[in-house]
Structure formats: structure tokens, C-alpha cells
Amino acid sequence: GMLDRCDAEERFALLKMATGALRIGVSARLAKTALANAFGLEVDAVEEVWHGLSPPYASLFAWGTGTGDQPTPADVPVFRPFMLAHGLEDGRVDLADYPAFVRLYDILFDDAEDLRALSWTDRRVRLESFVAGLDPERFDLSQVIEAEDFAALEAIRAGARDAAIEGVMLKRRDSTYVGGRRVGLWYKWKRDPLTADCVMMYAQRGSGRRSSFYSDYTFGCWTEEGELLPVGKAYSGITDEELKMLDGFVRRNTLNRFGPVREVEKTLVLEIAFDSLHESKRHKSGVAMRFPRIARIRTDKPALEADRIDTLRRMIV
């Protein structure tokens, strides 16, 4: 048959196409870098317009081969508008009761003038001038932090959680605004994560190279009545060896199957790191974690000694 006529690489590609599983773990950044190298382009220039283009990327390849002009910000939406992580239900909202307020950190365009090639210092001067003409009840300017040394900066960062912010942004004063994650220009010095000891409850297979492992784990904490309720789900933070260990635990301790999900014995404790906790009406536990990841596998700790939901509630700011 057709597979018999193919070599190993051709069979791999054919099976991927036949099953619709074309994802093979190539990151968007790697694809952008490959295209830039293939046509002698600057990867930052590719990064800038990539998300505004769609397959088969005719204008991008025309630019690369020299048969077309470089896509410009006027042609594609280079920067994202404000978004919500979760959609809201339809309803009427009185802006007098819920006024919108925006804190401004940078200015990239002033009308049609592109300011991204200016240094941060010059953009800040332009931003301060721009903000002066806005309604102060609707807009304000981000604070510029003054610190004599890193010890003082560390003290400021230590208070980030009390201020309900993620941490401290360090920016070179001579940095231009570029796409992607250029090393050395900006650095997000995030606050230390919160942690909680939780019990694994459910697991399901991952995607991509982890599709053959049970790598996505739902975990919970105890109520005062001794009931275990889910508080989050994580799939990151573990090494390949730890992944194999957890996969083996799931396979050996499965209680029930619900489609792709397996319920497991409630005996394994995971130390979960997360950025913050919030009240949630969508979860029976009443709490939801932001950016949970596995910090440690606590084989030394009995499941009954995992944290209680009331302990998590006290972490809500």
C-alpha cells in the first residue's frame, strides 16, 4: 500500500496528515526565526507583523523573496487592543457606577507618528506630555521607581503582593520598543509565588510530545468536613523524569475513567506554586488559582495533611 512505498520520514508525515495531528512541537518563535534566516530578514521585523497575517502568508513570502514590500503597521494590526480573559454575559452597565480607568505605561504611536524607535527615556517624555491632555479621572501615568541599589529595589519588590501587582519591571532607559522577547532590554522581576499542598484527584493526557503521558493534573484541598474539592489544574513545572513518575502513578492508581480523564487514588500530594488566588462562583471550592504549576512532588507528606480550602481563602487579597 501507500505506507509500504514511503520511507520512515514520509510515513511519519503521511500519518500526521491522515490523522489530522500535524502539531509536532515547532514553536511560533522557531518558525519566525527560520523564515528570517531563510530570506535574510530581521527576526524582530518578522515578529512585528506575523500575528496580523494569515496563511498562506503570501505578503510575508513576497517580502522575503523581494517581490513585494514589507508589511507595515498601516497594513496589519501590530498591537492588540484591550481584552478580557473571560467573556462577560450581556447586560447593561452604568459607567457612572463602573467607570473605566486606564494606567498608561508607554506610548508607541502619536497619531500617525511611530515612536517605537525612540529610547524609553524619549518615549516617556512624549507620554508625560500626552497624558497632560487627558481626563485625570480616567487616565493616569505609571510610577517611575527610584532605588539607590538592588537592596532597595528588593524591598520594593517585596511589597508587590500587598500592592496587588505582579512585581517590578526593569527597563533600560535607552531601550527601543521591539517585538518578541529581546534579552537585556526589559526584565519582569516577578514577586515570589504562593504555594499550597494539594492532592491529585484527576489526570488526562497532554498534547504534542506529551500526548502519550498523563501530564495534566487536577488537584484539590480539604474542606472542614473532610471533603476533597478541586482548586486548580496544572501541567507545567515538572521534569521529564517527574513526568514519567506521575504518569506511572496515574496508571497504577486509576479508580474511574471519564472519557479522556482518569480519577486516581487520593494519596499523592503536589506542592503547587501560583501567582494569586481569587474567589470563584464557577468552582465548588469557591476559589481559583492564577497560573498554577507544580513546584514539588510531596511523596513525604500524607494526603490528609494537605492544605485546607480555608487556608487558601486566607490568601485571597
Can you walk me through this structure?
The protein has 317 residues and is α+β, with helices and mostly antiparallel strands. Helix 2 (28-39) packs across helix 3 (43-50). The protein contains eight helices and 15 strands. It is globular. The protein has three domains: 3-65, no CATH class; 102-190, DNA ligase/mRNA capping enzyme (D-amino Acid Aminotransferase, Chain A, domain 1, 2-Layer Sandwich), CATH 3.30.470; 194-313, OB fold (Dihydrolipoamide Acetyltransferase, E2P), CATH 2.40.50.140. The strands form five sheets. Strands 7, 8, 9, 10, 11, 12 and 15 form a seven-stranded antiparallel beta sheet that branches. Strands 1-4 form a two-stranded parallel sheet. The chain has a two-stranded antiparallel ribbon with strand order 2-3. Helices cover 25% and strands 24% of the residues. A hairpin with a 2-residue loop joins strand 10 and strand 11 (261-264). The chain has helices at 8-19, 28-39, 43-50, 58-65, 120-131, 150-158, 240-252, 309-313; strands at residues 102-104, 109-110, 113-114, 139-141, 167-171, 186-190, 194-205, 214-222, 228-234, 254-258, 261-264, 269-274, 276-279, 287-290, 293-298.
